[in-house]
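User: Could you go from structure to sequence for me? I need the amino acid at each position, not a summary. Structure tokens:
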């Protein structure tokens, strides 16, 4: 697996301030809390992962935070660590990312090249998250060719008016993606997406929570459907592919049980002709680098969305998008460690 067995596991809590509060349908967050998981081998190498529970993703976020808080410190016994965080998807994902970091370090390649496929992409396209016509116009001026807009928090009339102004501002050549974050029931989703179809969105992400209902929304409106909240495992992805529930899969590696499992799910989508977007959980740069490596591993053109998290502070450097692309300096392993 990597050079030498596990000697210690380090679990460190982090709390990072958002530049502006992040609002969801149920709460407002001023800080991002997570845990860095470091896996140390007997030869002194350390690989790093990021466990960042978030309500609505992974398992029970409150229980996951409690388990991780109880695991803080240094563990000499790997089995005891896993007993303490048993069932916590985020902890398993963090350990996996750290182990993959170690494997790539030992192999002498960037994590993106650990998949066994051809060498990964050198740069990765990203989109700009915008809320208004002015923000969309400014993003296009900075070189972005794709913008993403959140919908569902306001009335359908308000969303339609806002999207019409955004489309008028950016023109017909810029791709507009919509994200409802499962805000609607099926009936409301069909009504809303039918009206939003007039601005020719590239797709709408998670119009409702239920996977089967999302498929019916797509069939009724003719708008491509992306799934995000519905996908937390290879089994979820397989079910979505079998039922034809999505045109695009949004993969958050932080909520799969391993980085390799997220990679396998994304490759399964590509083989089925379903688009893939890799994104993050607004976690620290450690987890976001893992998502960036995953997007690059999938090949040229796969987008890494939302990786420029709205944090006012961070634990490591992260590349800045230029002309709508992230073009990092790739080094061995994950390439970063928490400061």
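Assistant: Here is the amino acid at each position, in order:
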């Amino acid at each position: 697996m990597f050079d030498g067995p596990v000697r210690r596991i380090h679990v460190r809590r982090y709390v990072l301030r958002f530049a502006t509060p992040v609002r969801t349908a149920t709460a407002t967050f001023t800080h991002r809390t997570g845990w860095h998981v470091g896996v140390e081998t007997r030869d002194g190498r350390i690989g790093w992962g990021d466990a960042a529970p978030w309500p609505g993703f992974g398992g029970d976020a409150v229980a996951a935070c409690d388990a991780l808080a109880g695991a803080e410190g240094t563990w000499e016994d790997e089995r005891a660590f896993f007993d303490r965080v048993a069932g916590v998807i985020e902890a398993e994902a963090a350990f996996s990312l750290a182990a993959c970091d170690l494997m790539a370090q030992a192999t002498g390649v960037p994590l993106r090249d650990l998949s066994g496929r051809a060498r990964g992409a050198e740069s990765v396209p990203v989109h700009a998250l915008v809320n208004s016509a002015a923000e969309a116009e400014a993003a296009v001026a900075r070189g972005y060719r794709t913008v993403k807009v959140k919908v569902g928090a306001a009335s359908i009339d308000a969303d339609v008016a806002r999207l019409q102004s955004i489309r008028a501002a950016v023109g017909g050549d810029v791709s507009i993606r919509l994200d409802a974050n499962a805000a609607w029931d099926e009936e409301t989703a069909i009504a809303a997406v039918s009206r939003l179809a007039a601005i020719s969105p590239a797709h709408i992400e998670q119009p409702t929570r239920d996977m089967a209902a999302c498929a019916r929304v797509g069939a009724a409106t003719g708008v491509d459907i992306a799934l995000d909240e519905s996908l937390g495992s290879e089994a979820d992805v397989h079910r979505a592919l079998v039922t034809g529930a999505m045109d695009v899969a949004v993969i958050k590696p932080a909520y799969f049980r391993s980085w390799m499992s997220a990679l396998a799910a994304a490759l399964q989508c590509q083989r089925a002709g379903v688009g893939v977007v890799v994104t993050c959980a607004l976690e620290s740069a450690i987890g976001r680098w893992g998502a960036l490596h995953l997007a690059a591993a999938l090949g040229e053109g796969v987008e890494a969305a939302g990786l420029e998290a709205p944090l006012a502070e961070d634990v490591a450097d992260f590349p800045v998008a230029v002309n709508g692309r992230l073009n990092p300096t790739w080094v061995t392993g994950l390439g970063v460690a928490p400061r």
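One structural detail worth keeping in mind: The CA atoms of residues 128 and 147 lie 5 Å apart.
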